[in-house]
Amino acid sequence: MDGPDEIAAAIAAVARGNRDAYRRIVRAYSLPLRAYLANLVYHRSDVDDLAQEVFLAAYRGLATYQRGSDFGAWLRGIARHKAHKYLRRRAVRGRAMDGFREELARTLEADIERAASGCATSAIESLLHCIERLPEKFKRVVRAGLDGDNAADVAESLATTVGAVYNLHYRANKLLRDCMTKELA
Q1: Which terminus of the chain, N or C, has less C-beta within 10 A?
Q2: What is residue 62's three-state secondary structure?
Q3: Which NCBIfam families match (predicted)?
Q4: Could you report the per-residue pLDDT of 52-74, keeping only the tens digit for each?
Q5: 0.70 exceeded by the pTM?
């Protein structure tokens, strides 16, 4: 389906209630839309997710499409809006990750200060021992936080949500704090 007449016919069929006709539209615009989104966002999985969101939003908002105008341009407008919203959310999450790193530094500040002032070997050994005792997911999250990794990337590598990563960070900090208190007592 390449021609505007075929697209217009598919849009008209969808407007009449033929949801299957929308599949033809998705097939026709899937590749160009994904290429457009790939220029706006980095991760391929994000491109696929955004493309699905765009097609869903376009389906829901099909009544607002001006018949006879460029459907591809209309889709790209929706895609641009969705991509900008995604990038803003990602920036907010990045700032939250910075907050986590600061919290981690504050949590471990006294231990780090003691380590630097002569108790270095035992405090560092205790911290490493506490980290080693953490469950694997917690260890990965702590390492990612110390390395400055992005929460979205950590979530992707753990096959979980960003919210779950923040929850894991919080729980890992609590376990480390409790462990260090026992180790250094």
Answers
A1: C
A2: helix
A3: sigma70-ECF
A4: 999 999 999 999 999 888 898 99
A5: no
d(CA 146, CA 104): 8
127 plus 163 within the same structural domain? yes
* Contacts of range 120-127, beta carbons closer than 8 Å, 24 or more positions apart: 122/184, 123/184, 126/179, 126/180, 126/183, 126/184, 127/176, 127/180
Angstrom distance (rounded) from CA 129 to CA 53: 45
**Tens digits of residue pLDDT in 35-49:** 888 888 877 778 889
Q: Which domain holds residue 134?
A: 92-184
CATH code of the domain containing 80 = 1.10.1740.10
**Range 105-128 average pLDDT:** 63
